[in-house]
Every structure is written in C-alpha cells, then in structure tokens.
Amino acid sequence: MFFTYILYSQSLNKYYVGSTSNVEERLKKHNSYHKGFTGRAPDWIIKWLEPHLTKEEAGRRERQIKAWKSRKMIEQLISTIK
Predict the structure, then answer these.
(1) Span 26-57, pLDDT tens digits
(2) Count of CB atoms within 10 A of residue 81's CB?
C-alpha cells in the first residue's frame, strides 16, 4: 500500500505534499532537521492521507496536487475529510 499525504507546519504556516509506503517513518524524517524544505521545522503533522495500490498512482496524485500551486485548493481538499 502507498499513500499520498499532506503535512502542515504551524511554525512555518506551510503545507507539504508527498507520497510514501511508510507514513510513520516518513513523518519522522520530515520532523528531523535535514536538508530540504521540511527540515526547517520539527512540527509537521499529517492533515490528509489518501491510500493507493501502487507507487505510480501515489506519485501521480502527489504531482497533481503540487501542480495546483494553490493553498486554497489544498485546504479545500483537507476539509473534505472532516
């Protein structure tokens, strides 16, 4: 099983979109200080998670969401799970 996910950092007030097969390990990596966008803050939380059967499907969905380049559309997607 693979997942497309959206994280949120309150300290940065930013969203991050990604995909993985291991959500827990990936979140630990995001919350550690490392090179890259998410390494700037240790307070990332999962706001949205979507399962996929293949890595290709999860990656396709990740690219689709990133292509929106719209915080409003991301927040609208997140609000659909409540």
Answers:
(1) 999 999 988 899 999 999 999 999 999 999 99
(2) 9
Which candidate, 28, 15, 71, 22, places its Cα nearest to that of 6?
Answer: 15
Amino acid letter, 56? E
Q: Which two tokens stand for residue 29?
A: 């990596």
Predicted TM-score (pTM) of this structure: 0.93
d(CA 3, CA 24): 11
The three-class DSSP label of residue 73 is: helix
Cβ contact 21:55 at 8 Å: yes
Answer yes or no: are the C-beta atoms of 74 and 17 closer than 8 Å.
yes
